[in-house]
Amino acid sequence: MEPVDDVFVEPDEMDDGSPATLAEELSVESLVSNFESVTSERDQFREAYQRTAADYENFRKNTQRRQDDEVTRALGGFVERLLPVLDACDGALAHGGGEAAPIMVALLTALEKEGLARVDPLGEVFDPTVAEAVVHEPGAGGEHVVAEVMRAGYTWQGRVLRPAMVKVTD
After folding, report:
1. Can you tell me the distance from the alpha carbon of 48 to that of 40, in angstroms, rounded to the nearest whole number?
2. Is the CB of residue 152 less than 8 Å from the CB of residue 120?
3. Domain residue ranges in the chain
4. Is the dihedral of CA 117, 122, 123, 126 positive or negative?
5. What does pTM read for this prediction?
6. Starting at the edge strand that comes first in sequence, how are the strands of the sheet with 153-156 ordered?
């Protein structure tokens, strides 16, 4: 006999916690079934965690990429506003104003370190992705070749910021 609340009851008379009930609850099949369901639930939680972790990592990378692109775009806009200064220096040099050369070299050198590249396709085959043909002249035939650069073009970190204005011979 087992004591239950200070009352002695026969084992087969107890409904809850009796040896017969415990034996049924603790059968090997039920333990295996419970183990499998707990394992399955654990695997579902692990997969949900892994998906969430991957989603977060993708979100973090996309946010960083968007932020980097925004900074690059903003700097590109700033540099684009400086291009008239470089054009003025080019014009001064073309008209014999040698005093503008140090300013142009200093500004161009500083901007090139940050990703600016000058596009000067003189003598090369015309490429409409980096140059804009504003004058066409007849030539010897064949490919279109840049005969004169009327205004230099610039790229900023690999993107065309401003195409070069050129004269093309056919």
Report:
1. 12
2. yes
3. 116-170
4. positive
5. 0.64
6. 116-119, 153-156, 159-162
Structural element, H or E, at residue 132:
strand 131-137
The closest of 134, 147, 149 to 94, measured between CA atoms, is 149
At the top level of CATH, which class does the domain 116-170 belong to?
mainly beta
Q: Are 115 and 157 in contact (CB under 8 A)?
A: yes
What pLDDT digit, counting tens, does each position of 72-92 carry?
Answer: 889 989 999 999 999 999 999
Amino acid at 42: R
Query: For residues 4 and 22, what is the distance between their CA atoms, to the nearest angstrom?
Result: 16
Best CA proximity match to 161, nearest among 94, 72, 92: 72
pLDDT in tens, 28-55: 888 899 999 999 999 999 999 999 999 9
Three-class SS state of 163: coil
Identify the three-state secondary structure at position 129.
coil
Which residues lie closer than 8 Å to 138 by C-beta, 6 or more apart? 169, 170
At residue 155, φ and ψ (nearest 5 deg) are -115, 150
Radius of gyration in angstroms for the set of CA atoms belonging to the chain, rounded to a whole number: 39
- The C-alpha angle 64, 65, 71, rounded to 5 degrees, equals 90
Strands 2-4, 7-9: pairing kind: antiparallel
